[in-house]
Amino acid sequence: YTAILPTQLYALLSEEDLRSFRPLIGMQTVGKLMKVFVTRRIPQEGMKILTTAGGCEVSLWDSDEPVPRADLLKGVQGAHGILCLLSDKIDAEVLDAAGPNLKVISTLSVGFDHLALDEIKKRGIRVGYTPDVLTDATAELTVALLLATARRLPEGVEEVKNGGWSSWKPLWLCGYGLSGSTVGVIGLGRIGMAIARRLMPFGVKRLLYSGRTAKANAAEVNGEFVSLDTLVSESDFIVVSCSLTPETQGLCDKAFFSKMKNTAIFVNSSRGAVVNQEDLYEALTSGQIAAAGLDVTTPEPLPTNHPLLTLKNCVVLPHIGSATYSTRGVMGALSAQNLLGGLQGTDMPSELTF
User: Fold this and answer.
1) What are the helix and strand counts (H, E) for the chain?
2) Which long-range contacts link 244-250 to residues 24+ away (Cβ below 8 Å)?
3) DSSP for 157-203?
4) Omega into 299 within 30° of 0, i.e. cis?
5) Which 3 state secondary structure label does DSSP give 314?
6) Regions in the chain scoring below 50 on pLDDT
7) Please, are residues 347 and 341 in contact by the beta-carbon 8 Å criterion?
8) What is the SS3 assignment for 230?
9) Would you name the residues annotated as active-site residues?
10) pLDDT (tens digit, 9 = 90+) per residue, 2-25?
11) Per-residue pLDDT, 14
């Protein structure tokens, strides 16, 4: 672990930073420093805030790789606050290891299915997360993945590199276009809506969406609220952008894919567990669907010998939906602000209510 003294990075803060966070600098606890455990290296915007907050003793798992379970259990001992990532399973065992001091868990993610919320709630621990700030970046990546999959960009790049590009051929590397198409979005929440807004200018003819309830703002994209069966059977492109819940786990299975058009493109940028990957493989190899683009898988990382990685009509990305420098910086700062709010017992910028 790397322990970071509260004043160590003070000199790196600009005057504007200092003005913004002066209420947090000088935070005190009863006679001792509050212990914070950070489970991974995070963007410097977040570390600056934490390390200049008086009253905090920050311990960092100083690696870009996930903290091993044994080290996580050791690192959280006596912690008042934990700043974690999506890959860190925060369950009863971790909460027990932390002990009664634990006031707040701040996750550097919009997802929270890695947190045992029932156990956390039972112990009166507050939770911060980072919604909204990654909406645009994730929507952009989803559109890029959809286009790369539909227009077979990875195949094209490979053909250029391996000498497969000989002369122009009328049907070589043909794919599917958005103009005049029907797009179905499963889950028209913040990210789903942002994806829809970006797709409409491509000339999409119909925008279908499904979910628990109709959305008032769907009118902005001429969205039609339909049943899941209707969406699956009528869409040329299906984009999954829902939360992972007991209801959505394994939602995209053999029955789901069997209802899709055999010319349809399937894209998932939500959570890997929403998809039954064995059934997806079968749908792709049998010609039941045309192609799939995935930014999320189960597990992550996907083993290099996984059957999906042998397919030309399956584009797999390493969960990079929010991976822009600016977005990750804002996520780091927000997760730090949430943590400090929880330690102080004051408002958190983005507190999860559950």
Assistant:
1) 12, 13
2) 244/111, 244/113, 244/270, 244/271, 244/273, 244/274, 248/274, 249/273, 249/274, 250/274, 250/275, 250/276
3) HHHHHHT---S--TTTT-----TT-EEEEE--SHHHHHHHHHHGGGT
4) yes
5) strand
6) 4-13, 15, 18-30
7) yes
8) helix
9) 319
10) 554 443 444 444 545 544 443 343
11) 53
